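Reopening this ticket.

The earlier resolution said the output was attached, but the attachment link was broken on my side. Pasting everything inline this time so it's all in one place.
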Amino acid sequence: MTQTVQHDDAIQVPPNSNTADAPALSIAGVDPELGFAGGETQVLGLTLALAGAGHRAELICDPAGRLWERAVAAGIRCHPLRIRNAIDLAAGIRLRAILKRERYDVVHFHTSRAHSMAPFARGFARALVVTRRMDYRPNRVFAPYLFNRAVDGIVAISGGVADSLAAAGVDRERVTVVHSGVDCDRFRPPTAEERVRARIALGISYGEFVISAVGALEPRKGHRYLIEAIGALASTAPSVKLKCFIAGHGSIRGELERAIATLGCAERVKLLGRIDDPRELLWASDVFAMPSLKEGLGVAALEAMASALPVVASDVGGLREVVESEYTGIIVPPANPEAIASAIGRLAQWPALRSQMSAAARARAVENYSMAKMTTRTLALYRACVRKTRGERDRVT
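Inline output:
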């Protein structure tokens, strides 16, 4: 739900701020990352939705990155910008030149490196907005300036992220919670035929119970605990034919491979590497697992819920907001393979419970986490920021 603040100097986001007769906006999203993860999914989806609604929506990104590749293929106009680090003065100067030439109404910084360029953008757009996706505290030395003064509005993708910003000294009244969105038309329950094809493609045998996980192979994603849970189930519930697919790449792949070998579950756990589209993996699955140790919200969990999968998720960050335990999935303590194993075992052994959670998960995703809702709320914030900055300039003159 969008957070509306009450003080006169704060950004108000009224419910009718996205009216059909309001003028179209010119918007640039800034995302210099080379990879394509959940954040880039959001950036591309938002940009396409804004363009589809009649706004001038463009991206400023690294031409060597996968976001550039996908955006250009989708017909989005992109401007090249490489940002090496948070103190890349040359990148800041190049960004300023782009903004001076293009004259955007709103510049939206989508990553931490992008946000570090905000001071260079001041005065070259009517409003500056930043999205914060991580639920750990930003640097307390720089956060008050970068969030309280360098931008006009802040998007937190969950209440947990908003709390972490406040703990770092960011003015909570400047923060608007706008949950991430998912394309609920594309991520949907499969037909019977689609599910059969998806399972055949992965070599899944009849009667196998499939758990999937999608995310970077990094310690914060907690995959080792999921692997340990599968190993435990192999010995405590040998009658349940389990298969676990983990999609993603990252620095600890070798460590996870060794854990799989040590636990003797190489036939049960498969590392798929990076996949461009998780939809068919979700269609082949019975349950989705997200055992993260930190998580801003969890786009992968949203895609799974939209695909009508119950989610076993850690009690961290935005996941505790997304997954309603015992209704759309099961929340477990972080770093707890025993709890993960127990949750998976329950869902494997009780198909009626799994069916109820599947339907509830799909309904919750459609109602609260659609890409359309995320776009509407973001656009409302853009308009509120533009109005506020225009009013401040009028008072000065």
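Reporter confirms the inline version is readable. The chain has a mean pLDDT of 92. The chain has two domains: 26-181+370-388, 192-368.
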